Amino acid sequence: MLDKNGIAKRIAQEVQDGYYVNLGIGIPTLVANYVREDIEVEFQSENGVLGMGPFPYEGEEDPDVINAGKQTITTLPGASFFDSATSFSMIRGQHVDLTILGAMEVAENGDIANWKIPGKMVKGMGGAMDLVASAENIIVAMMHTNRAGESKLLPNCSLPLTGVSCVKKIVTNLAVIEVTDQGFKLLERAPGVSVEMIKKATAGHLIVEGDIPEMTL
Amino acid sequence: MLDKNGIAKRIAQEVQDGYYVNLGIGIPTLVANYVREDIEVEFQSENGVLGMGPFPYEGEEDPDVINAGKQTITTLPGASFFDSATSFSMIRGQHVDLTILGAMEVAENGDIANWKIPGKMVKGMGGAMDLVASAENIIVAMMHTNRAGESKLLPNCSLPLTGVSCVKKIVTNLAVIEVTDQGFKLLERAPGVSVEMIKKATAGHLIVEGDIPEMTL
Amino acid sequence: MISKKVATVSQALQGVDDNMTFMFGGFGLSGIAENAIAELVNLGISGLTCISNNAGVDDFGLGLLLQQKQIKKMISSYVGENDEFERQMLSGELEVDLIPQGTLAERCRAAQAGIPAFFTPAGYGTEVAKGKESRDFNGKMHLMEYAFKADFAFVKAWKGDEAGNLIFKGSARNFNANMCGAAKITVAEVEELHPVGALDPNQIHIPGIFVQRIFKGAHYEKRIEQRTVRSRD
Amino acid sequence: MISKKVATVSQALQGVDDNMTFMFGGFGLSGIAENAIAELVNLGISGLTCISNNAGVDDFGLGLLLQQKQIKKMISSYVGENDEFERQMLSGELEVDLIPQGTLAERCRAAQAGIPAFFTPAGYGTEVAKGKESRDFNGKMHLMEYAFKADFAFVKAWKGDEAGNLIFKGSARNFNANMCGAAKITVAEVEELHPVGALDPNQIHIPGIFVQRIFKGAHYEKRIEQRTVRSRD
User: Fold this and answer.
1) What parts of chain D have a pLDDT lower than 50?
2) Which CATH architecture describes the domain D9-118+148-216?
């Protein structure tokens, strides 16, 4: 079974040379730490930064240089700043190659819910609806089940949707899953996790074909 | 009767302090020479310049600094350069206060034709259609009649339209005319021009109410 | 050169009134119009509709207007850092219209650009789509979204000049740039107000034509919302 | 940093082919992609649809492609400086789609921004409106216009870096900026190609994400179309 860093590490393997990547808040943010050093990747932040670098050294924080999580950041050589409309031109115009974000629920058909729990949590969707509606390549990073132990991979989402039929891949603490026309297709097991465990934790239709390899991390 | 410079001089009186002004090619370009020195006006050129200045001194021409007529220009302090989409944001978004352009024909209802003579001249509309569709305040600068002596102020345009019901005022070599719901309303006569001459040269419905003063230039 | 300079924040805010619609630049607390907000708190006008990506925090930014119950309605994409906001929303005191961030930005830009409506895929199939016209383009469904209409836009830039030209700094550009010219009156406050001619015409982010009033902010706290650092070893 | 640098114009144009749709930046002869155009003349590909505000002059700019009859269709706002153009158009050899300049710019920007369609008042009630959907917004009629689709965009900037970031000079920015990212592949040629880190991130006009290939143009004539000067006394 993976921890959050493990999930991030596995997702980092999906990042390819030359990719522009938008990372959501939470586990996705950790992905930046595990991208191979021999490939070139640029991180886009929807508040108007391309070429994000690591957090600043103490004392070097600049209130005018933050990421979408409102954290102080630095930029790398080749970076650029731009306005919000231009930022979403990058996203809506499909210039960003990969979007990695968290989710509360994902449905068999690729629907995603990650912005609202009616009556409980109403913080807003931020840029998530734009990202999932536009990105060609969306990976969801999340725990396989919620705190109550219920599956987050469902036949249908129960929460208000963020986007429809958009998620292509899911990486959880238990598995790597592809979203296909037929449902969730199991691609890899987390270290020490059996197919049976994954089946149990998956409420939606899980397709298991042949031998399911364990992830290499 | 006015010459082209006279028309420009009369139109310059319409330019008010604090106006952003877009000048078309031909007579409108001359208006810049006659704007009162005690008011502040900025000229916008739709190819991406705000704050146009005079032509450069010989030897100081910059191929990267031109106006919409492709002429080399200079800029004044406070100027800015921008892309074409932003330029038309200024125009379409009604941030430009006054548009002055030439015309082949103007109709009683404010329709204007100035971009095409079928089978003869098909150079294109450039920015004229955007300007006339968006501007709140459009003044046409033109000769009252064409080279064949035919009136350019018509009941209806015969040439392909540039815009509908958009012209508010016309300044010609003979008169200043307001476009009203009832038709062309004569406001001023050019020096030495009688109402009768203007009537003769105007094919559209001309409203003459009371005494028509002569222009002061 | 047409001068947009006013001497004080109170002159800059001439004409603001109850029940108006205002736009506020900034992302989180970064790049917010601190001086204009403080003055609106002073003026005590209320019934406001505020278009702003976020709603500040309890004791800073738009949170200050919320504390005083000056805001009737918020149009935002993310409002998660503000307890008072949540309380007012859940109690029904505050109307909230949550919309996707890219749609928010584009609706500002559309207002600036005189585009009355446009299509975007964001929000199709979600509750955001409720009551909206949808349409297929290239095999993908899109929603029709309208340009915003607002009375005032309050933006904050780094450098400006008397002609109203603006240059922003870093990621503080955000919605500030897109809101200029998107309201009837755009009020820009700047950290540095330069004489005309001091800024390179080639490096202006927002030409002065989009700005009606400009003033130098008396003071900037520039509070950091999430201070994150790494160690030096 | 993702490098977009290619060594030669011929590498930059890899993949261009007959019957493709190309965008060309520039206004008149100002800011045109001189080196890309010269290479297209060399390559001799034909049946091209060209989206460009103007069509060059007889012996420069897109006029060179016209002379060789490489262009099947022009989509432009103003084409008045070119005799060969007029001859081909009137004889029916060349298809021409004339559209308002602001609509041309916005259709490029829409393609860049993933906006499939938008509304503009330009051209309503004229022959430009033929076959287009029209609609009333705020009591004013508008036309629905679509984003362009193109295979390549050829743009020219003043400075660029290896990451594809671009800075334009003066009014040569024009359509160049709006065409970046508006085609499947954007090829930028620059007068100065700098190493990454040399350009200020705050003063980039077009971020490198919108550019797929960048090269330093071997030579720029930068011909002036209308040299106008004033006397020194």
Assistant:
1) none
2) 3-Layer(aba) Sandwich (3.40)
